[in-house]
Amino acid sequence: MKGSAQQSVIQRRTIALVLFCVCVFVGAVILLSLKTGPMPAKLGRPRTDSVRAAPPTAKAREQPKVEALPVAPSDTIQAPEGTTTVTDADLNYLAARNLLIPVAGVPASRLRDTFTQARSEGRQHDAIDIMAPQETPVLATTDGLVLKLFQSDRGGVTLYELDPSGRYVYYYAHLMRYADGITEGKQLRRGDVIAYVGDTGNPGAGNFHLHFAISKLTSPHKWSGGDPINPYPLLVRQ
Q1: 65 is a domain residue
Q2: Would the pTM of this model clear 0.70, i.e. be above it?
Q3: Is 3 within the bounds of a domain?
């Protein structure tokens, strides 16, 4: 009787131990699944008919790619023949410069507008002639820089002065000679003596005067051939 009771106790303990082990195993499995998540499904090669490119939108079809053309800077654009790049802004700037009549002792009342007069070979004058005795001092019309000293068949002894803005050139022609110390690159002040009135070039012997012109540069590397601007209203303040 005593042996049967001991055997029953051993069986109960064995069952309890088995149940405890089972519970521990199940708990471990549950904890592991919570930490790692579900096992990933086996990846296979995608079917070729399962991936499709998105159709192009209507906007993309309506706006084909177009390459932009380069545009030259505004101060280097050549105007079509018969037109000019000179604007009211250019004239207002030059008017504000308070240009000096470039021949010593000549009042505004003695100036004549010869800008549109015809010249040989179908040319327009594009300048004014300021009459004065030989050797009368020629003055810098405004502050600037001696851009070019040049001798030509028509203009004779000439001087090109660059405006401080770099956009305009003042042209003095038919000079008898340059003033002492005048060289290319020299800085000028308004009223400086730069040369003397003469008759060199094509005006004819004894026809002493200053040919004075203003032009707007149409190329940053050219000192002549720009768009002409009438000096007359700028000198007489009209």
Answers
A1: no
A2: no
A3: no
- Residue 30: inside a domain, yes or no? no
The total of structural domains in the chain comes to 1
Highest-confidence range of 2-16, 112-126, 223-237, by mean pLDDT? 223-237
Q: pLDDT per residue over 178-217, tens digit each?
A: 999 999 999 999 999 999 999 999 888 999 999 999 999 9
- The CA–CA distances, whole Å, from 115 to 66, 126, 135, 224, 235 equal 46, 5, 24, 17, 13
Q: Which domain range does residue 183 map to? A: 80-236
- Kindly report, residue by residue over 156-168, the tens digit of the pLDDT: 999 999 999 999 9
> Percentage of the chain with pLDDT > 90?
51
CATH number at residue 193: 2.70.70.10
| Residue 109 in domain | yes
